[in-house]
């Protein structure tokens, strides 16, 4: 049997597969790198857009992994018997369940593997530094840069330069009313 596929049919299958994978989350390390490059090229609107997307992506990936881990832990409980065979059977089943759950919700896991440098930057909350500076450079006269500073200051209370930035923002009139701060602070990326 001779089967010939037209190039149009192959292209449509390829486009459909790409379209279905496009609904998944963008990798946070790629968004972070884009934001850093935009910062050094002076595109501060691009920094805000990409950095907020990177923070959202990072948070979504972490929360999805935790949800999948808890879901699979409930599906494959460890019982009272402590035989080696049973233990490793449960461990392998949980791992397979987690892989399937994460693949279903996020797409290919290899896309969301983040380098250790980027993970350390996120743990040290460096994206908030970029966001704060980008907000300042854009001249946003709202509570957003102040909130970014306050959020960062809560996690890094010993940093003198953060207190200086916070005082500068307060002095320049970036501070809105306290209600605005709490409303903006509840944004997803903060």
TrEMBL record:
Keywords: Glycoprotein, Signal
A single cellular component GO annotation: endoplasmic reticulum
Domain Leprecan-like alpha-helical: 27-137
Organism, scientific name: Pleuronectes platessa
A Pfam family the protein falls into: TPR_leprecan
UniProt cross-references to InterPro entries, sorted A to Z: Collagen_mod_leprecan, Leprecan_dom
Lineage summary: Eukaryota, Metazoa, Chordata, Craniata, Vertebrata
Molecular function via GO: collagen binding
GO biological process: collagen fibril organization
Secretion signal span: 1-21
Protein name: Leprecan-like alpha-helical domain-containing protein
Lineage top rank: taxon: Eukaryota
């Amino acid at each position: 049997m001779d089967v010939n596929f037209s190039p149009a049919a192959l292209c449509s299958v390829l486009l459909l597969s790409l379209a279905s994978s496009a609904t998944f989350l963008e990798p946070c390390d790629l968004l972070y790198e884009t934001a850093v490059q935009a910062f050094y090229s002076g595109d501060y609107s691009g920094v805000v857009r990409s950095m907020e997307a990177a923070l959202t992506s990072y948070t979504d990936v972490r929360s999805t992994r935790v949800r999948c881990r808890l879901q699979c832990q409930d599906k494959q409980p460890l019982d009272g018997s402590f035989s080696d065979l049973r233990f490793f059977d449960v461990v392998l089943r949980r791992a397979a369940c987690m892989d399937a759950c994460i693949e279903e919700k996020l797409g290919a896991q290899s896309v969301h593997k983040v380098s250790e440098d980027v993970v350390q930057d996120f743990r040290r909350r460096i994206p908030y530094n970029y966001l704060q500076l980008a907000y300042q450079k854009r001249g946003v006269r709202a509570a957003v840069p102040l909130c970014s500073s306050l959020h960062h200051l809560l996690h890094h209370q010993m940093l003198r330069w953060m207190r200086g930035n916070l005082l500068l923002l307060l002095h320049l009139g970036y501070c809105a009313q306290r209600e605005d701060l709490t409303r903006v602070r509840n944004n997803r990326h903060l």
